[in-house]
């Protein structure tokens, strides 16, 4: 479940119909969560960036450990 969005920055206007590419970096894995910085780009220029955190939960909404990462 999406837990938090922090530090949302819009640096350039984004118009309807513009094609955007999204990239995730600075990925951090915790016991129950994964956090990363998401950047949206138009024509190779960052137009939006934000920090996201997702938390693994069960059917009751309780935090549970993430599955092991396959390498």
Topology:
Elements lengths: L1 E9 L10 E9 L3 E10 L2 E11 L16
Please explain how this structure is put together.
This protein has strands at residues 2-10, 21-29, 33-42, 45-55. The protein has 71 residues and is mainly β. It contains no helices and 4 strands. The model has no long low-confidence stretch (mean pLDDT 90). It has a 4-stranded antiparallel beta sheet, with no helix packed on it. It is 0% helix and 55% strand. A hairpin with a 3-residue loop joins β2 and β3. The two termini are 24 Å apart. The chain is elongated and about 40 Å long. The relative contact order is 0.32.
Keywords for this structure?
71 residues, mainly beta
Q: What's the gist of this structure?
A:
With 71 residues, the protein is mainly beta. The chain has strands at 2-10, 21-29, 33-42, 45-55. A four-stranded antiparallel beta sheet has the order 1-4-3-2, with no helix packed on it.
Tell me the β content: over 45%
- Summing up helix and strand content along with how strands pair, one would put the structural category as mainly beta
Q: What string, H for helix and E for strand, traces the elements in order?
A: EEEE
User: Mean pLDDT across all residues, rounded?
Assistant: 90
Spatially, the strands of the biggest sheet line up as: 1-4-3-2
- Helical content stands at under 10%
Give the overall shape, derived from the CA principal axes. elongated
Tally of contiguous helical segments: 0
Poorly predicted runs: none
> How many β-strand stretches?
4
Radius of gyration (CA) equals 15 Å
Largest sheet geometry: 4 strands, antiparallel
Q: For the record, give the distance between the C-alpha atoms at the N and C termini, rounded to a whole number.
A: 24 Å
């Amino acid at each position: 479940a999406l837990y938090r969005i922090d530090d949302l920055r819009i640096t350039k206007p984004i118009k309807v119909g513009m094609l955007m590419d999204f990239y995730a970096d600075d990925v951090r894995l915790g016991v129950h969560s994964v956090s990363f910085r998401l950047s949206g780009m138009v024509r190779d220029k960052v137009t939006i960036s934000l920090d996201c955190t997702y938390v693994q939960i069960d059917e009751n909404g309780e935090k549970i450990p993430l599955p092991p990462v396959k390498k």
